[in-house]
Write a structure and sequence with these properties.
The structure is a homodimer.
Chain A lengths: L17 H4 L2 H20 L6 H13 L1 E2 L1 H8 L3 H13 L3 E5 L7 E5 L1 H21 L5 H17 L1
Antiparallel strand pairs in A: 1-3, 2-3
The structure holds a DNA duplex.
Chain lengths: 155, 155
DNA sequence: ACAGCAACGTTGGCGATACCAACGTAGCAG
DNA sequence: CTGCTACGTTGGTATCGCCAACGTTGCTGT
């Protein structure tokens, strides 16, 4: 009668209840947290955050983009993008100039240094994804991407 | 030559680049954000947050638990759990007493009112999950749970 | 018996993230 | 030229996960 709940071992308190562990929103939060920590750890000694990478990658694809366009493409707020571009500009990874064709906009462009930094970041990002998905087969990885994409697209 | 990138339409700037959209960590973050917003919206007029639900649900399963045990079961920090239990106690949903068998611990227990509140919360949580997974078939939902569980267990 | 170590709860604080409100400026449509 | 809209900028808010420190309590080894 020593154990209040009738468990023999006793260390069962550390286990997440099935009721919670079967909750999609909880699992998503947990998995995303792990993903975030993994990516952050891989980018740490590069002094970058994950949004810096996504902005640089988008710029490499677009060539030039306004901050508002970057925000819409990446789901970021204008104010947050302002801070990100400012940081990248201070590191000379991007340039920010008034768009001559629409002087409301800032034309943000990748510099040569930015392009090199992006290449280095890409390596780290790839390593983080590999570590994150280490327990999944190739088929499972594809399935995961498909299902997550469904969820994101429905948003 | 009007369009810098050769796109005819022009509203393509709002689309997330494939390079980003195929990134597991990014998809996880986006999907988790949507899940979080959906749950929060469903719990909003109940004046509760999602961690309140998980704590209440764990207590219903365990009967009694210390704050540290709740933290380990749910992946929450001691300090955060303190705030949660305090809030639940103020609403008389749980009681917090010194555990007579180990006076370092607090024995947190569900009250009758807490049990009723949990039942109401469960309805809202279920509705949120339904809304979240609306675009997925039953098979897809099972697959998603399995894959997310793999990711979380590997953490 | 006692000293040292570990666990617990509590308090206070930090950094990252997502979001919102307001403002001035610039383009655009009626 | 008069609204309306988009844009960038600034500043502020709320949540969340995490960490450090402290006093109390239990356990263990000597």
């Amino acid at each position: 009668m020593g154990c209040a709940n009738g468990y023999p071992g006793g260390v069962d308190d550390d286990a997440t209840p099935e009721r919670i562990r079967a909750l999609p929103s909880w699992l998503l939060a947990r998995a995303a947290l792990r993903a975030q920590r993994t990516v952050a750890a891989h980018l740490e000694d590069a002094g970058m955050r994950r949004q810096h990478y996504t902005v640089l990658a988008t710029l490499e694809e677009r060539g030039s983009a306004s901050q508002a366009a970057l925000g819409r493409a990446l789901g970021l707020d204008r104010s947050d993008l302002h801070a990100i571009v400012t940081a990248l500009e201070e590191d000379a990874l991007v340039t920010r100039e008034r768009d001559p064709e629409d002087r409301r906009r800032n034309a943000v462009r990748l510099t040569a240094k930015g392009r090199r930094a992006l290449a280095r970041l890409q390596t780290r990002i790839d390593a983080a994804q590999t570590e994150l998905l280490a327990g999944l087969s190739a088929t499972d990885r594809r399935e995961l991407l498909r299902l997550l994409d469904l969820l994101v697209a429905a948003g």
